[in-house]
Amino acid sequence: MAKVTDQRCRSLLEALDKIVGVRVVACEVEVPFDSEGRRAYIDHLVRARLGEDERETALAIESMDTVYPRDAQKLVERFAARAWSLDGVDEVPLVVASHLSDGAQKVLRDGRVNFFHAASGTMYFRHRQRHIDIQRPTSEPLERKIRSVFNGAREQVVHALLVHRRWEGGKAWVSGTDLAEMAGTSPFTVSTTLQELERQAWIEVTGSGPTLRRRLSRPELLLDAWADAWKRRLPKEPRSRWYAYAGGGGGIIDYMLERLAGFEGWALTGAGAANAVVPHLTPFDRATIIVPPGLSKEWGAKFGLEPADKGANVTFIERTGAALMFGDSHPERPGSRFASPFVMYLDLLDGVGRNKELAAEFRSRALQLGEATNG
């Protein structure tokens, strides 16, 4: 490996050597090629013999520190331009990175570009009869970084972006100022949040400066990532369970709406609320209610509820922030306050009963988005 000076490339070749055997013949750096009339470069072109094969294999390698989906898409396009310029010459496209996000790995796979994740040892390599697919877990900071988008004021930006698309349609652009107003956050918070979503290739950008506009191009992927963060948080949220006898045709939902009238900082969510928004989703006579932090016991006493570990039909979840944004009332229930459809969907992912099935149906019917990619 003396001819290969880049440390990441060396780690790739050493890992590949352990699997199939690699004999490096030559290595070129900054190899030029024509890309639609412009001069472009590949970081490294390594010629090697793999295994018992006496034929040389050309490995075109891009070596990078960090790769997000947006970067991965550009790499796929670069390798495609390189392949076109070679006019049929056999060459193996490879990306080696110190940090390679899960989303970036998917983009590279879909684009038929091989990769090696130096931090974990994950490798994807397909050429001729060889097919190597090694997947190893990683504790790198990239996935934690995207999860940080779903906290505090940045989570409000995410919620506002999804709602804007739902209200205005998939072709509508939005300015940072308008999104900040929708989200109730600063333009700086909007900017830093959207920069992270750009790296994930979930939003599109047009214009610059005062004319800069963005739109959500992959709402299903953004919602899936939010769902992952939401499910991690669910077990840590303050919850209390109660029971109330509710006579009448409206059941526990109408019973609680009567008592919540005049109070602030609450919203109905979960399966009972989802069934009210999308009729005939499922019969469900339980109420899950978002309430202000620290007020569960006080409100339970005021509403005449009894604490109930078993047989509860009312659940209070203490929350604020994004969970209470973009709520709406039901036309047949005056004074009602339902959480936004996105929050309802997320709360259906709690693993209780048939909620997972209900979440899939609600996602399709109310949110009009395809199936979740993360199961």
Record the SSE blueprint.
Layout: H1 7-19, E1 22-35, E2 38-50, E3 57-67, H2 69-86, E4 92-100, H3 102-110, E5 114-117, E6 122-127, E7 130-134, H4 141-147, H5 152-168, H6 176-183, H7 187-199, E8 203-206, E9 213-216, H8 219-233, E10 239-243, H9 251-260, E11 267-269, H10 270-277, E12 287-291, H11 296-302, E13 306-307, E14 314-318, E15 328-330, E16 333-338, H12 341-347, H13 355-367
Parallel strand pairs: 3-4, 4-5, 12-14
Antiparallel strand pairs: 1-2, 2-3, 5-6, 6-7, 8-9, 10-13, 10-14, 11-12, 15-16
What's the CATH topology label of the largest domain?
A: Trna Endonuclease, Chain: A, domain 1
Strand content: 25-35%
Count of individual helical segments = 13
Strand order of the largest sheet: 1-2-3-4-5-6-7
Order of helices and strands: HEEEHEHEEEHHHHEEHEHEHEHEEEEHH
Overall shape: elongated
Q: What structural category arises from helix and sheet content? A: alpha+beta
The number of domains is 3
Write down the CATH class of the largest domain.
Alpha Beta
Mean pLDDT: 88
How many E strands?
Answer: 16
Radius of gyration from CA coordinates = 26 Å
Uncertain segments? none
Major beta sheet, specifics? 7 strands, mixed
Instruction: State the CATH architecture of the largest domain.
Output: 3-Layer(aba) Sandwich
Kindly state the percentage of residues in helix. Answer: 25-40%
